[in-house]
Amino acid sequence: MNNMEKEKKIHNSFADSVIFLDHPLLKHKISILRDRRTGTNEFRTIVSEIAMLMGYEALRDLPLEQIEVETPVEACLTPMISGKKLAVVPILRAGLGMVEGILSLVPSAKVGHVGLYRDEITHEPHEYYCKLPPNIDERLILVVDPMLATGGSAVDAVRLIRQRGGERIRFLSILAAPEGVARFTSAYPDVPLYIGQLDRCLNENAYICPGLGDAGDRIFGTK
Ligand code: PRP
Ligand code: URA
Fold this sequence. Notes:
The chain is an alpha/beta fold. The chain has one domain: 3-Layer(aba) Sandwich (Rossmann fold). The protein contains 7 helices and 13 strands. The protein is globular, with a radius of gyration of 18 Å. Uracil (URA) binds next to helix 7.
């Protein structure tokens, strides 16, 4: 079995709600993020570009309606996105790096924020902030976080959004560990999970291997 076949077999072992993205541009950009020599400025730019590519996939079933437009030649009916009720919800801090990329596709989307940090010892998430746009129950919600490690933060973020009435949720994560995917899909088998790259495992500090390090620190230049 070659490497691609092996990867496909692993992907197929997860729930159908998981969408593993395979565009070569995405793979190339993720490799740049992994490189320890990639500085803050480039890292931030590439996270945003990846978010745009992932958002493009995650929004491919947006409904369309026929609108009449006058071209310089004649009038025609032509499709436009209908019902633009969208929300982007980054998990603070690192998820913030993905917001601009999504907004470049859907500038009218509203932005909510969920603040969670992982305890360094237990690796469990702690909530410190949650503010969502109005009418969250009517919106398609893209929750974004570059890293899905143990899955604790992702599961908690969706729980907080659900408690406030959010229903139509899609989760976008650039890098994921198998442990996090399993935890997320068993908690929310109905929430589509878009993944840029599935990595090997978690280490003893619950960091993704080979991963890219601490996404928040690399985006904001802390540490
Ligand atoms: C990171 C990352 C995720 C979380 C993933 O955030 O951005 O939110 O860890 O880990 P998990 O799947 O094990 O929960 P962190 O808690 O380090 O906060 P930060 O973004 O503020 O640095
Ligand atoms: N959070 C990160 O930023 N990186 C990891 O590898 C795991 C959690």
